[in-house]
Amino acid sequence: MSDAGTISEAGTISEAGTISEADTMTDQGKARQLVVAGVDGSAESIAALGWAARYAAATGATVRAVLAWHYPGAAGGPPTGVAPSVVREETEQRVSGELAEAVARVYPETSAASVETRVSYGHPAQVLIDESKDADLLVVGSHGHGSFTGMLLGSVSIHCVTNASCPVVVVRGR
User: Fold this and answer.
1) Over the stretch 22-80, which tens digit does the pLDDT of each residue have?
2) CA-to-CA separations, 64 to 99, 141, 146, 149, 167, in angstroms, rounded
């Protein structure tokens, strides 16, 4: 957002950094703004989901919490078809439970229905970059589970900042 940008009560931020009523997303048949939050269960990702929830409450946006997973590979992208379907289904069920726990930590039970959740197979950076193509805003934590002490940003957040198709907010943990 540019220094000239302003925020109105019911508007959205345009690429020029201003908010116009024409861009407003309401319940009157118009599409709502989509905020994608990357979640991996870390404290930073919970903080990012919380930030996304507060932003959505202020702007009327929809939040989509996304958790990406993959089988570790030696090099390159995530391997495909390396486990029997039973193992994959069990893994997806466990990961879906982790995502549900993260959402429950941020949203009270009464409003959790207003959050879309998605579990996707693939490297987290690539999954979030792909999700950014349909999003108005991408929110990620500064570090995930694989953080190294002393680093300001993790590899997923760096990839998202440099490759996402929409603006990216990086939230630091407390």
Assistant:
1) 444 444 555 789 999 999 988 899 999 999 999 999 999 999 999 998 876 666 666 66
2) 11, 15, 23, 29, 15
Residue 140 pairs with which residues in a beta bridge? 170
120 within 8 A of 36, measured Cβ to Cβ: no
pLDDT digits 0-9 by tens, 89-102: 898 999 999 999 99
At 162, which CATH number? Answer: 3.40.50.620
Q: Nearest Cα to 136, choosing from 67, 69, 43, 60?
A: 60
167 contact partners, CB below 8 Å, separation of at least 6 = 136, 137, 138
Which domain covers residue 47, as residue numbers? 32-171
Shared domain for 74 and 102, answered yes or no, is: yes
Q: CA-based Rg of the chain, rounded to a whole angstrom?
A: 17
Task: Say how many C-beta atoms besides its own lie within 10 A of residue 113's C-beta.
Answer: 8
